[in-house]
Amino acid sequence: MDLFLYEFGASSAEAPPVPVEGVFEMKTCQRILHLSPFTLGPVVCRRQYQGAEAYAFLLRFACGLESEIKGETDVFGQVKNAFKNFKLSRPDQAVVFQPLFLKIFEDTKDIRAGYLHGIGGNTYGALARRLLAPLPSDQVVILGAGQISKSVAPYFAESKLTVFNRSLGRLLELTSELAKKGYHHINFIQDDASLHSALLTADLIILGTPAESELDQKVISFCTGKNLKAKILHLGAQAPDLAHFQNEPALADRFGCLSDLFAMEKEQNIFREKQVAQAMEACRHRAILRSMARSISISHGWEDLALFS
Question: What is the pTM of this model?
Fold first, then answer.
């Protein structure tokens, strides 16, 4: 299968066209990717790749090397979840991509183990905790139960944590994941009345939802109207897309976002530059080998994909 990859921005201004039949779409807070076994013709996008170059980009992406936080691990979980959902919703189309993702999962695991092991602290949760420095007595409210919130919640579970999401299914999924890690005393809420009560006593408010969602306005109006003093961290966008928070004088000095996490990460990058450079080269080399006629043997069958989930 030839591979065509198209990268779009995540903002509404850079939104891609609706994917046609046979195209796999994956969304993160930073970008949207379209993968296709055929060319999509002239497309306005950030970058586009074909063949080995497309594979190399996808591998760098899964390894966290295309992220602002170099080497972060959250994105690999997003890749696996995106393809899992694609298999459930479009099983006939997912069959076409199965060999590709089997290779990506295997190569990502190998490169992370060989070059990025111990890179340290590269998750949104770890950086968010370092930025906010929660106390055990702090009331922490996380809005959203998606991938970002799943990454962040365990780092604040030692505090008095409440998670809000209107989807019962997502709350139950997060409840199960936290329980497996030994966290059983999290407060999960769905309705607006419970959210208002939680915000009233919150010391830290973390948004794991897209920018300019209705929850943005709810938090802004509630915090300014009630004159609340909670610190707010938005993990759905960087500063340029969050002017509606920064333009509120009452919130400006206690508001943070992805830009602040990325700034913290840059301070630590010097130590990791060599590891990242080696991993980038490994991705390029692996893509070249993969593009050759089965020059790297695949020891796993498709049924072994569960090993990487």
Answer: 0.62
DSSP-derived 3-state class of residue 119: coil
Domains in the chain, number: 2
In this structure, are 105 and 42 located in the same domain?
A: yes
41-55, 120-134, 289-303: least confidently modelled range: 289-303
Based on the domain organization, do 303 and 231 belong to the same domain?
Answer: no
> What CA–CA distances, in Å, run from 34 to 45, 106, 259, 302?
10, 21, 25, 22
pLDDT per position as a tens digit, 203-250: 999 999 888 778 898 899 888 887 788 999 999 889 988 989 988 888
Q: Return the CATH number at 149.
A: 3.40.50.720
What's the per-residue H, E or C state across 274-301? Answer: HHHHHHHHHHHHHHHHHHCCCCCCCCCC
- Strands, E, within 88-177: which ranges? 139-143, 160-164
CA distance 212 to 184: 32
Residues 160 and 219 in one domain: yes
Examine the domain organization and report whether 108 and 153 are in the same domain. Answer: no
Q: Name the residue range of residue 96's domain.
A: 4-119+271-308
